Structure formats: structure tokens, C-alpha cells
Amino acid sequence: MSEALIVGVTRQAIEVALVITLPILLAGLVAGVLVSILQTVTSVHDNVLAFIPRALAIFGVFALTFPWMLRVVSGFTTQVLTHLPEYVR
Which domain holds residue 45? Predict the structure, then answer.
């Protein structure tokens, strides 16, 4: 197994991980910023008010994108397992 092949597979794995986590991270970021703005405007600084909207946004995006995430991870795994004999050489 050549170094270039190892680097390529590792790069693909990192790219898949980033692509899969990006929607969830963006949902948490947007919800967090909106809640922070709301807390600043209303001067209500409650930890529960900051946590629950963020958790709901993350859960909602996860529920909507889970089938897509599963397809992406399954496709990557299938590709790696299909090309496994080439990797072993």
C-alpha cells in the first residue's frame, strides 16, 4: 500500500466527516447566534433558553438529514471495501 493511497483514503474520510457534520454544526451555530441576539435584546440570560433552541435545531437537522448522511457514509464504506484488494497490494 503506497503512501499516496493512504493519504488519499484518509483525505476522503476526513472530507466525508466534514460534509456530514457541516449541516448539524451550521444549525447549532445559527440557533446559537439567534438566541444570543435575543438574549442581548431582552437582557434575559438564562442557560436553558440558550440550550433548548440549539438542541432542537440540531435534532431537527439531524432528523432531516439522517437518510442522506447514511447514504454518504454507506457509499464511502462500500467504495473502501470494494477497492480493498487494490489497497492491500
Answer: 3-88
Q: What nine digits make up the cell of 72? A: 454518504
Statement: the pTM of the whole predicted model exceeds 0.70: yes
Indicate the number of domains in the chain. 1
Task: Give the count of alpha carbons within 13 A of 48, CB side only.
Answer: 0
Q: Are 55 and 31 in contact (CB under 8 A)?
A: no
Per-residue pLDDT of the chain (89 residues; tens, 9 = 90+): 788 888 999 999 999 999 999 999 999 999 999 999 999 898 888 888 889 999 999 999 999 999 999 999 999 999 999 988 887 77
Can you tell me which residue has the cell 497490494? 89
Report how far residue 47's alpha carbon sits from residue 33's, in angstroms, rounded to the nearest whole number: 14
